[in-house]
């Protein structure tokens, strides 16, 4: 419940208490209360004010206290892409890791074999140009075996090769 709503509740409760106190003292014929109207009204107003003050003090404490902020959501666990693969005859093993901070692959292939691993996004750039910081995964691991026209390709990001 918001702080403004709590203060509204406290204020309305104090006003209702004041009104009920004044009405109660003026309506009930208690012998110890003054009998003339002016003095009885003064007593009723004083009683209503004291009762409303007590209610407002209690509810004011409740309305004014700070509520702890909601607990933050725990961070998402780091994304990891892992593949263990075995392929045979006309084999092809491919892994693409997206932007995960850790990409790992264990692969075996044979017979027309091809093993490919891509660990993130590597933008097309000229030869020898440095990779932009934060664009590659923290770690790329690959253990691969291929045979029979074997081809193993690994890049730390998407590999853009012209003319292939």
Note the main sheet.
3 strands, parallel
Q: What's the shape?
A: rod-shaped
Number of helices: 2
Name the helicity range.
25-40%
Query: Which regions contain 5 or more consecutive residues with pLDDT less than 50?
Result: 122-127
User: In angstroms, what is the radius of gyration?
Assistant: 39 Å
Query: Could you spell the SSE succession in H and E letters?
Result: HHEEEEEE
Q: Give the integer mean of the pLDDT values.
A: 77
Name the assembly state: single chain
Secondary structure elements and their pairing?
Layout (H helix, E strand, L loop, with lengths): L2 H25 L9 H28 L15 E7 L6 E4 L5 E7 L6 E4 L20 E7 L6 E4 L9
What does this structure look like?
This protein has 164 residues and is α/β, with parallel strands linked by helices. Helices cover 32% and strands 20% of the residues.
Give structural attributes.
164 residues; 32% helix; three-stranded parallel β-sheet; rod-shaped; 20% strand; alpha/beta; 2 helices
Brief summary:
With 164 residues, the chain is of the alpha/beta class. It contains two helices and six strands.
